[in-house]
Design a protein that fits this description.
It contains four helices and no strands. By secondary structure, it is mainly α.
Length: 141
């Protein structure tokens, strides 16, 4: 993602959050004062409660959307970082299995360490594939 678009996303997210906070504060001051008392006196407290609940629901949806927009670049970055860390972890097993292969290299065809050699070769191939594909997937993102 370009730095300009990250800054734009952060700026929009902060503006939306500020606007929602100011509306919430203004709405809280209005509803906590005379409006509920008048609605209660008029017998319309149910309608006023529904309106407040609807406004709170809309505010909650707006907050979730704003936070989701703010966290979108970080979610992508987190996914890439997770794939790279996983790939590095798999490549550690490649190094370990390569050392076992080296230790049993003398009996790769027939000998006392033939099974260990084949098992370490298979393990190295599997983890090499997993590590390389993890880095490949991180690169594609």
């Amino acid at each position: 993602m370009k730095p300009e678009s990250i800054g734009r996303i952060l700026g929009v997210g902060l503006r939306v959050a500020g606007r929602m906070a100011s509306q919430r504060l203004a709405g809280g001051a209005r509803t906590s004062g005379a409006a509920p008392a008048k609605a209660a006196r008029a017998g319309q407290s149910g309608q006023a409660g529904q309106a407040v609940a609807r406004a709170n629901g809309n505010t909650a949806k707006s907050v979730v959307r704003g936070v989701g927009g703010f966290l979108r670049p970080f979610r992508r970055l987190g996914a890439i970082l997770w794939l790279e860390v996983t790939g590095a972890f798999f490549l550690i097993f490649v190094v370990v299995s390569a050392s076992f292969m080296w230790k049993n290299r003398a009996s790769y065809t027939h000998g006392p360490g033939h099974r260990e050699f084949v098992a370490s070769a298979a393990m190295m191939a599997v983890f090499l594939y997993l590590g390389a594909s993890s880095f490949w997937r991180a690169r594609k993102r």
